[in-house]
Amino acid sequence: MSYQCFDLSIAEGIAHIVMNRPEVRNNMNPAFWEELPKLIDEIDANAEARVIVISSTGPHFCGGLDVSMFGSDAVKDAAPDAYAERQRGLKFLDTVKRMQGSISALETCRLPVLVAIQGGCIGGGVDLATAADMRYATADAFLTIYETKIGMTADVGTFPRIVKLIPEGIVREMAYTGRRMPAAEALNIGLVNRVFDDHQAMLDGVMDIAREIAANAPLAVHGCKRAITYARDHNTQDGLDWIGMWNASMLHPEEIHEAMQARAEKRDAEFAALPKRRA
């Protein structure tokens, strides 16, 4: 399947999704919101890879929401009938829910998702980045909750996630001011995992990390992703109960034996792949 906003390549167990519209700062137009979850679902459902890397092109990672959408039926009902204004709020909520679902696809898919950020990660770009498992950046990168600067409150996913990644006071400062957070600061507070000198060095480094993930047992990595997300959203005892139940049904001694045997024999392990999802 071809996409307007993305290029996809799969090699060495890594699905590399590249945003390909640098001339418009890789903004999030209507096609973006439709294509992203379809692309993630296609990779996940067909078990085509073991890890996903999302990167971008041009001077900026993502310029956020395509502002032309504010004048479209995607966010506004132009119908002149008497009931349109009464319906407006619920229609807007429906649009937001669909957009939230597009971003949440990164979190709910079975594979780890790594995001490589160069230049600006603006507005909706932060929604996308915070939904990923890990974030990496170039030295010139910055993140900004820019929605405040254009008179709106971010609503697609930034706040529920970023407040669990960095201190609340810093989130509030970013949100209230809309200021740019440079990569060095993002690294210092743990919002990004690592900072690289330039775009190519970042892509090389992130692909090395992705290959290391892809070399591990896909079933175990999937279990880690589920357990970490569950623990983030629940208390400690709930997390302990959940992982106990998960391993009671999902722990595979054969995978452990293969990992140990492959290490002893200095060869690549042959693990079970994630099963394809039912249509």
UniProtKB/TrEMBL annotation:
The keyword Protein transport does not apply. The keyword ATP-binding does not apply. GO terms for molecular function: isomerase activity. CDD domains: crotonase-like (cd06558). Pathway: Lipid metabolism; fatty acid beta-oxidation. It holds the Pfam family ECH_1. SUPFAM superfamilies: ClpP/crotonase (SSF52096). GO terms for biological process: fatty acid metabolic process. InterPro entries: ClpP/crotonase-like_dom_sf (IPR029045), Ech1-like (IPR045002), Enoyl-CoA_hydra/iso (IPR001753), Enoyl-CoA_hydra_C (IPR014748). This is Crotonase/enoyl-CoA hydratase family protein. It comes from PS1 clade bacterium.
